[in-house]
Amino acid sequence: MGAGVIPFAERDGEVLFLFQQTFSGRKIGYLIDFGGGVGVGESYEEAAIREFVEETETMYFAPDIEVVAVTEAAVRSGISRVKALFDATLQAHPDWWSPRVVAPGRKAKDWRTFFVRFDYRDVLEMNRAWVLDEGQRFKKRRELLWVPAEELLAIYAERPERLWKRVRELSSAELIIRSIQAAARQKPEDRSMMGDQPQRV
Length: 201
Prior knowledge:
Number of domains: 1
Structural class: alpha+beta
CATH class: Alpha Beta
CATH topology: Nucleoside Triphosphate Pyrophosphohydrolase
Distance between the termini: 19 Å
CATH architecture: Alpha-Beta Complex
Order of helices and strands: EEEHHEEHEHHH
Strand content: 15-25%
Helix content: 25-40%
Mean pLDDT: 90
Number of strands: 6
Low-confidence stretches: 192-196
């Protein structure tokens, strides 16, 4: 049982989706969401929120990356910020999440990945902090990158092997990406009246 999140943001009229890459272990070379197992007593949403904060080492909302420290207070603050974004997005779009569908013969996965609107942040400073850290403040080196919606759709259609398996196996990802693009084209005041929700398959 697990959960993840793929944040998205708008910049210069374009919808971008946030992924991470790692430099050790079996996930090297893939575009990865932010996620992991659901803890005891957690909901899917709570697990996805916690995983994002942990995997970004509390940096995403930090005003000064140079002094970031992964403390209990920083984690609590990050969780509160991400929860507010989850609540706002899923209140308007409760169907912006996808289960996983695995190949025949493989064990089904009890999993949900949520697509949640974030404020855009340039990731260069965070990536630089990981490069320079050398294991002092952070657990492992990662790299964040924003992927434009059309590029992500092309990856799903033509190069799905670039996606980490749990991202590749999301049954409704392409429908949700297109729904998010459609929502972004609407006027801000109309976004609470977003038309049809994607039909999950």
